[in-house]
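Chain entry —
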Amino acid sequence: MKFTALIAMIQDKDEEAAIEAAKEAGAGSVTILHGKSIGLEEKKVFFGLTLEENVSVLLFVMPRKLSMQVMRVLREKFDLDNPETPSLAFTVPLSHVAGLDTKELHKFEHDIKSMI
């Protein structure tokens, strides 16, 4: 089974909804990192302070066959193709993976078989 890492940078307020949508689309466990996003053009607010948007970086490891399905759901639900949306998602192919839970592997196998 070939694996892919799907990384989604979503606004903090959408974190739970994004995780739920991804899991409904077939994703398994997720690692969540918190960060700040500063665009190309800085946004100024009161007293010259720069507004930094808080984001959640969601990292999913899943079979390649499921990754496009999860990506499609995230693109549609969070309007990722809209340049005004401060969210981003991309995939990275993985050549070696260790430490995946056996229950998760069985879930992936089941999900892929139901797709066929």
